[in-house]
Amino acid sequence: xxxxxxxxxxxxxxxxxxxxxxxxxxxxxxxxxxxxxxxxxxxxxxxxxxxxxxxxxxxxxxxxxxxxxxxxxxxxx
Amino acid sequence: xxxxxxxxxxxxxxxxxxxxxxxxxxxxxxxxxxxxxxxxxxxxxxxxxxxxxxxxxxxxxxxxxxxxxxxxxxxxxxxxxxxxxxxxxxxxxxxxxxxxxxxxxxxxxxxxxxxxxxxxxxxxxxxxxxxxxxxxxxxxxxxxxxxxxxxxxxxxxxxxxxxxxxxxxxxxxxxxxxxxxxxxxxxxxxxxxxxxxxxxxxxxxxxxxxxxxxxxxxxxxxxxxxxxxxxxxxxxxxxxxxxxxxxxxxxxxxxxxxxxxxxxxxxxxxxxxxxxxxxxxxxxxxxxxxxxxxxxxxxxxxxxxxxxxxxxxxxxxxxxxxxxxxxxxxxxxxxxxxxxxxxxxxxxxxxxxxxxxxxxxxxxxxxxxxxxxxxxxxxxxxxxxxxxxxxxxxxxxxxxxxxxxxxxxxxxxxxxxxxxxxxxxxxxxxxxxxxxxxxxxxxxxxxxxxxxxxxxxxxxxxxxxxxxxxxxxxxxxxxxxxxxxxxxxxxxxxxxxxxxxxxxxxxxxxxxxxxxxxxxxxxxxxxxxxxxxxxxxxxxxxxxxxxxxxxxxxxxxxxxxxxxxxxxxxxxxxx
Lengths: 77, 575
What we know:
The structure holds two protein chains of two kinds. By secondary structure, chain A is mainly alpha-helical. In chain A, about 75% of the residues lie in helices and about 0% in strands. The longest helix of chain A has about 35 residues. By secondary structure, chain B is an all-alpha fold. The mean pLDDT of chain B is about 90. Chain B has a two-stranded parallel sheet. Chain B contains 21 helices and two strands. Chains A and B meet through helix 1 and helix 2 of A and helix 1 and helix 8 of B.
């Protein structure tokens, strides 16, 4: 059994999201003229953070499920 | 306008570096799981369907997809979606429902090996060798295209780009084998989608939305002598070749692209089929192409729409958006880089740029993993066995797989430099690959659905189809092209409106000659496999998969019907 791919996906996109959000706060607002006035780093960073977190939650949840599954199985036998 | 240049800041480089750390990290962690050759080449057949599905899609999502489809979107408009809604999707559904049971059920380790089980050694050999050569060159072309682009956009050194990208691909495949390639393809899928979605949003917003875009595409069409709606209607202008920019009529489109080329690619090319073959169950293997089909259906939004927006803005600005190519027409391949430079500030630019780089590298990785499998199992192991040498332990084949990975990468680098030096050699090779690939689907169709098809029939039919393609090429030429590598080297007898139309018709001719020849030769020769040997390989001799007790949303047939219905609706919406 290989490791759950949702873990690295979740980690990586959470990290990207966090970087973009922080940069979105700190960066010079003038550069957002090119992105039609949207602070796209902040907006899209938040979205990526949400996506990454969702992947992590799904991965951890299924890990917990399979662990508790093993426990019940042991008890039955 | 000059070629766009991207200037990456610290934050952009940080994102790039983090991405590569994850890519290499996945390879590193998977290294521990690789215990034998079946782990290295076939991921121990343990990958869940959603992963194989996204990897199936992603393996095809190389450079030509992102850069090329955006270029076609600018050049041909929404007609480009035929590559998806007529081409890819029906073929993917066919693979899932009708062909996957034989590929997966036969326990073949590769597509050439299926040909060996179904037909004979020579048919396998023909397919394995041509495929191995092709993958090396495709991988080299990917590498070359990436290095060229980075040289152009960032001013990086060509040799440095080649060295760095090739080393990263080498390391993660060497460590984790196919699983590593597949996992990274999924990572890359999310990078492309999440890296380009904001680009499409900003560009569409800037141009004024879909309805304004449609208005702005009218002068693009009329200035080239086409009807006003040519860039926004996919089917209305395919009555004759002269009424659309692709220069193709509906029959050549549906049969050439939709049937022969697309089914040939999606159903027989080991590069994509390999992803489905390593799923963790028959049901997962059959769901793989279907899971891929859902995002594939929507990909035109991500890759074709930006091209359409770019050409509309290019036209409106009086030709000042896209740089000019050497032949005086816009350099359509620059569409995506131009948009990235125009809309993305530092930060997001790093994400978009990394997505672009990732797509080139996974295109290369897909070819390398297909190459090392075919080399080790279909060429090396077969040669050893046929020369009667003693069977070696599994660890030998694992080592050979790693060795083939290194060799494959070195050959790819060679091919990249070859492409850089001699552009016409690459054109020539791609032409020959076209001859070899076009007839393949006829062989598989007859092999899987007619038990009377013989080994001789398959082999000589394939050869005949390839020859048919080459002969047709000798008589056909497209307007404005000179006889020679573009066709007509015997005598230009048939004139086509465009190279694309010529290509579609060549595929039709190759497929038909292979089909007819295989049929006739099979009837004239003795069967070389008994019914018992063909169980699990041919439709009429294989038990239908038992009505699996699965939720409806996991049944291939149900999913297939949903995908086809949705595709039909898309075709009608953008009629």
